[in-house]
Design a protein that fits this description.
The complex is a heterodimer of chains A (427) and B (555). Chain A has 427 residues and is of the alpha/beta class. Chain A is built from 13 helices and 15 strands. The relative contact order of chain A is 0.21. By secondary structure, chain B is mainly α. Helices cover 52% and strands 4% of the residues of chain B. In chain B, a hairpin with a 2-residue loop joins strand 3 and strand 4. Chain B starts with a helix and ends with a strand. Classes of the chains: A alpha/beta (427), B mainly alpha (555).
């Protein structure tokens, strides 16, 4: 092991020990099955993070914070939920039935009302800075949570996203592995040629790698080129890839999640978590309703409601919810005022999120917004950074841990403080 | 200009096959001219050698002294083809095609490398590639607000400036002070990149100015006084105030003399909302040093622009010198590229950025000359092998003393550029058919979508990721590039080369800009001879070449 520190010198030093152990072949030596969540029970399992990203800025008023009959409410109706005295928008009967698995925060506040900057802030817990890219919480979860025996990527993003999450200063290897077409094995996993030709190609590749190493073997090893190829080849032939496709799921289960790409993505997300993936993000686009807000949100609900409620039920049935933190949110909410196009505009004040699963004190509502839409500040406001810290705490991650960026700047994983009220094992 | 016109065409994906078919016909016609054949080049006039001139000598001496002090021997010189490959990657963002290699090898003049660089710098492709590389720090990689920000227009405009070799200070002046529409006056996109919700964020612009034009991350002082450098929050605020007059109007970016810079705790987005106004304080424009360099009588932005490019502002020249070094070597002299040490009181022959910066200023801020000087140094023409690079733990001593050419990862657009150049045999350039260029553009976008982008200021020494390796091995684009058909190098090498030796030679030349060694020839022979067909064999060879570290890493 004495070689390691120098081998990992300078630019690659920040690659985690996890990677260096993989480079020594350790992670592949473990039985693949040990990655499966099913090996241990419920809350004893290593935790995972599942982010359901509602891209475009979902209207709190048409989702989880309706104000029917008020000046801001519009035509949206509300229904009762399993949580006494708590109503959500009538388009969400499925979620109303499982709302007790979540804490509902109705008073998130952010300072960014632009999509790109807003999603950055909410996904990372930090506002954009010009000289650094902060990692998304999903990347941090993948970085901090161990995933022994996992051959498929630790951080996986399902569905098209305009602003993909990034690994930021943790490095590009903590960018999510993106799957654009949910329900199928990720792209680029199958070689174009048969096994015989692939073997010949790889042998030739080894020859060319050795000849490039002549006179600079150490420098070439520090590129990790061959190592990365080997990891990619391991992924290509991994049995764990089965988690990406839905061939062995029954039609009734698929129907339960809904006939949508997002629905399939939610089912894949459950399978990935079951396979031991530490961090999954699934995106539903289409919430940016500057015009025809109400029809637009109803259409979104028809996709989101069955998929999300099915996902929660399924995770619970498989005893996975106790080890999975589920966060449902978008970059901001929408204005209480209704514009002349029957739309709502961006509103980074008093918007909603759902937080449930492992370590979360579910069945409660935090904060409230003004039904008249006059007061901008919600009661009991929750800062994004504090929400991030809460998620990390629920995952068992030391939220205040400092990580050095590539230029040696120390950065805290979260600049906020966990909200004890949201945590089951309050601190 | 047609070249950029295609960037505005939003072709639905379904139209591509027709496009591909059209270009296939064209390329088949082109193929009939047999690009594999060696070219006869008419005798060319001698080219006046730019180097060695005093600046190149001064740099070589400085670096030699440093290595001597550290006790590290320099690597030996590398061969001309390797240098040619580096030049192409740096300046044109791709590798030389077979056609260009043939021309180069047929050139008998002793200073043919200098001639090649001169030709390359005069080529439109170089202007486009350099513009792309500079646009990243200038306007960032955020999408921005499409309504008022057009990255493509900005990059095309910048390429036009570089193509006519307009002095860098003139280019910068225009960017900082331009007025007008983001479509009609593309330089204003430098300003509108910072627009959010209809308001121009002066802080973001001040941050850009300090990082890109002064080589100082002064924007850290936006929120707090800089822990290491001398920058104060008030200095940053003063710099930002120079942009406060700029506003968006129906006729584009304008300067409204009545506007003042207000500091409050809100973000731009929040401040843009009418109900948030109130509180805060006014800040007048101020510069952090060299007040006497400020222009007068113009708008605040014009005055600031005059200050930035003032001949006494050595930071301006040092900043672009550091960037240019990074463009040539894949690794800036100082990293992070936008946070370089403060200049000393006097320009020093012991400071590489002073040497380059002074030369740049003395030669009318000529970007081509800057590139040429760096490319003419001994260090640029060194081998990337070195006895101390054999063991990973010794590498740093070589890297730190620039005792060998650094090994850096190709940027995504270089990877795709190199694959396209290798497979098309002939050069795809301005005069190529529009359809060919369109295909390249779409392929490039698809590839980069999956492969990812690099961040400015991030070194290119970081390893690739697994998804990147997968794209390169198994991606659709990779398959198209490797496939044996009449328009790819694979098909033509398989069909036209006389024997397997010639096939190996040509494949190595197009992909690695060199011929195979005897050992490689022996080891790879089987790849061709055991394949079910010539086409399959060359496919396997090209695939191997595209995935080997020598192809993927600049050396």
């Amino acid at each position: 092991m004495s070689l390691l520190p120098s081998l990992l010198g300078s630019a690659v030093a920040r690659r985690s020990l996890l990677l260096s152990s993989a480079s020594l072949g350790l992670s592949f030596a473990l039985p693949a099955l040990s990655a499966r969540a099913a090996w241990s029970r419920g809350s004893e399992r290593p935790r995972s993070l599942l982010v359901v990203w509602l891209a475009g800025g979902p209207s709190q008023l048409e989702t989880f914070d309706p104000h029917p009959g008020s000046p801001s409410g519009g035509p949206t109706k509300a229904i009762d939920t399993v949580v006494p005295d708590v109503q959500i928008a009538a388009d969400y009967p499925g979620i109303a039935a499982v709302l007790d698995r979540f804490a509902l925060v109705r008073s998130l506040v952010s300072k960014e009302g632009d999509h790109e900057r807003g999603q950055y802030t909410v996904k990372t817990g930090y506002r954009p800075e010009p000289t650094i890219i902060h990692p998304a919480i999903g990347a941090i979860a993948a970085h901090e949570l161990p995933s022994p025996g996992l051959q498929i990527p630790r951080f996986i993003a399902l569905g098209a996203a305009e602003f993909p999450s990034r690994g930021g200063y943790l490095g590009a290897e903590f960018d999510p592995y993106r799957v654009f077409d949910s329900g199928h094995k990720g792209q680029n996993l199958v070689p174009h040629v048969d096994a015989e030709r692939q073997t010949r190609r790889l042998a030739a590749l080894a020859t060319l790698t050795r000849s490039f190493e002549s006179g600079r073997a150490g420098a070439v090893r520090r590129t990790f080129h061959e190592h990365t190829l080997r990891e990619a080849l391991t992924l290509m032939s991994s049995d764990q890839l089965a988690a990406f496709d839905l061939d062995d799921e029954s039609e009734s289960v698929k129907a339960f999640y809904g006939e949508s790409d997002f629905g399939r993505g939610c089912l894949v997300a459950r399978r990935l978590i079951e396979a031991g993936v530490r961090s999954v993000e699934i995106t539903l686009q289409g919430f940016d309703t500057h015009a025809r807000n109400f029809a637009g949100h109803t259409a979104q609900a028809q996709i989101l409601d069955p998929a999300l409620s099915a996902l929660i039920g399924d995770l619970e049935d498989r005893d996975l919810l106790a080890s999975t933190v589920v966060l449902v949110m978008g970059e901001f909410g929408r204005t209480p005022a209704i514009n002349p196009l029957d739309g709502r505009d961006h509103w980074p004040h008093g918007f909603s999120c759902l937080l449930g699963g492992a370590g979360i004190a579910a069945g409660q509502v935090i904060g409230s917004t003004d039904p008249d839409g006059l007061s901008k500040m919600p009661s009991d406001p929750v800062e994004i950074a504090d929400l991030t810290a809460t998620v990390f705490r629920a995952l068992g991650i030391d939220f205040a841990r400092e990580v050095a960026t590539p230029i040696g700047r120390p950065m805290k994983l979260s600049g906020g403080k966990p909200l004890a009220r949201l945590l089951a094992d309050a601190v | 200009m047609a070249a950029f016109g295609i960037r505005q065409i939003a072709l639905p994906a379904g139209t591509l096959p027709a496009v591909a078919l059209g270009s296939l016909v064209l390329l088949v016609i082109a193929a009939a001219s047999d690009p594999l054949a060696k070219r006869r080049v008419p005798s060319q006039p001698p080219v006046a050698t730019v180097a060695p001139d005093a600046t190149v000598v001064a740099i070589d001496r400085l670096l030699a002294d440093r290595r001597a002090v550290a006790g590290i021997e320099p690597a030996g010189p590398t061969d001309e083809l390797a240098i040619l490959r580096r030049l192409w990657l740096a300046v044109a963002g791709t590798i030389p095609s077979l056609e260009e290699l043939r021309q180069f090898e047929a050139d008998a003049r002793p200073n043919r490398l200098d001639a090649a660089l001169k030709g390359l710098l005069a080529d439109r492709r170089s202007a486009e590639s350099l513009a792309q590389q500079l646009a990243l720090p200038l306007v960032g990689d955020e999408k921005g607000q499409f309504i008022v920000f057009r990255r493509d227009r900005f990059t095309a405009w910048l390429a036009d400036q570089i193509a006519t070799n307009r002095p860098w200070d003139d280019i910068v002046r225009e960017m900082v002070a331009a007025r007008g529409l983001w479509t009609g006056t593309p330089a204003v996109n430098f300003v509108t990149q910072a627009a959010a919700d209809g308001v121009i964020d002066a802080d973001r612009l001040a941050g850009r100015v300090s990082r890109v034009f002064l080589g100082a991350r002064m924007d850290c002082a936006q929120c707090h006084n800089h822990p290491f450098a001398a920058w104060k929050q008030s200095q940053f605020e003063g710099l930002a105030a120079s942009f406060a007059q700029a506003r968006l109007s129906p006729v584009g970016v304008e300067d409204d003399p009545r506007r003042v810079h207000r500091i409050d705790k809100m973000s731009v987005a929040a401040a843009a909302m009418p109900m948030m106004v109130g509180g805060g304080r006014n800040v007048p424009p101020r510069v952090p040093f060299g007040e006497e360099w400020l222009g007068s009588g113009g708008t605040h932005r014009e005055n600031l622009a005059a200050w930035i490019v003032h001949p006494d502002n050595r930071r301006f020249d040092r900043a672009i010198a550091n960037r240019a070094w990074g463009i040539l070597f894949g690794k800036a002299w100082h990293e992070p590229v936008d946070d370089i040490p403060d200049p000393g009181a006097e320009s020093s022959s012991e400071d590489l950025l002073d040497i380059l910066g002074d030369d740049f200023r003395a030669h009318g801020r000529d970007l081509r000359r800057l590139v040429t000087v760096i490319a003419s140094t001994e260090t640029f023409r060194m081998s990337s092998t070195h006895p101390l690079l054999e063991a990973p733990e010794d590498c740093d001593s070589v890297t730190q003393t620039w005792a060998a050419f650094p090994i850096t990862r190709l940027r995504p657009e270089q990877v795709i550029g190199a694959m396209v150049a290798a497979t098309s045999l002939q050069t795809i350039h301005q005069d190529s058919h529009l359809l060919t260029r369109t295909i390249r553009f779409f392929r490039e976008n698809d590839f980069i979508r999956e492969y990812g982008k690099v961040q400015d200021g991030q070194g290119q020494s970081l390893p690739a990721t697994i998804p990147q390796a997968l794209v390169q091995m198994n991606g659709k684009f990779a398959r198209e590039m490797v496939e044996a058909n009449p328009i790819t190098a694979t098909g033509r090498i398989a069909g036209m080369a006389s024997d397997d030796t010639a096939r190996l030679d040509t494949a190595f030349l197009v992909a690695l800009t060199r011929r195979p060694s005897t050992d490689e020839r022996e080891a790879l022979q089987a790849l061709l001879s055991e394949a079910p067909s010539k086409g399959r064999g060359v496919e396997d060879l090209m695939w191997t070449l595209f995935n080997c570290p020598e192809f993927c890493w600049n050396h």
